[in-house]
Amino acid sequence: NMYKEFRDVNINGAVSQMYREMAGRHRAHPNTIQIINTATLQASECKRDHVTEMHNSKLKFPIITKMPMLAKRLRSTYQAQR
């Protein structure tokens, strides 16, 4: 038995994450996994650290490299380079 928490925009995405994690970490096949319950949790109900660390409203991610865009007249849809 396991209790898992996943962050996603909908329940289908969270279930897909769960199948991928179970296949990667535990080598479980999808036909051997039985999902008993799914629920949408409020922020105060979350238990796992990897989920609660994203609840900070002032969370920021740095922009590592910012590439300048070329002018529209210099861009092309298909351009070969050697």
Question: Keywords for this structure?
Answer:
82 residues, single chain, mainly alpha
List the helices and strands and how they pair.
Layout: H1 11-26, H2 49-52
Number of strands: 0
Taking all residues together, what is the mean pLDDT? 90
Strand content: under 5%
Biggest pleated sheet = none
Low-confidence stretches: none
Gyration radius from CA atoms, angstroms: 20 Å
Helical amount: 10-25%
Secondary-structure-based class equals mainly alpha
Shape: extended
Number of helices: 2
Q: Spell the H/E element sequence.
A: HH
Distance between the termini: 55 Å
What report would you give on this structure?
The protein has 82 residues and is mostly helical. It has two helices and no strands. The mean pLDDT is 90.
Task: Summarize, please.
The protein is built from two helices and no strands. It is mainly α and 82 residues long.
